[in-house]
Amino acid sequence: MITPTRTSSPRPSRRGEPRRDAGWYFELLRGAGASPEVWRTIYHHPLAGAEAVVEWFRSTGLRPYLDPLDPEMREGFLDAYREAVARAYPALSDGTILLPFPRLFLLARV
What we know:
- The protein is of the alpha+beta class.
- It is 44% helix and 24% strand.
- It is flat.
- The model has no long low-confidence stretch (mean pLDDT 89).
């Protein structure tokens, strides 16, 4: 969600760290002599609308994007992000958004 907003909003380019898939970690651990287990789980966090989703990520995942921006650009970015969240995660009848929160777990037996 952040990446499309990042590319459509005015802000300097900063990110580009690779995200690895489960197979990459599996091979890394197996190559180190371990017997790996790798699995992915998606948690669904109930949040009170798009604004709550923005606040959830504001102090963590959004910080690298917000910190270099001046206040006006920051608000523009957050407005675009809020709109993208509302489109991507339709609210339930009571306004709640079930935010999917994927996690990759690794276990290595040596």
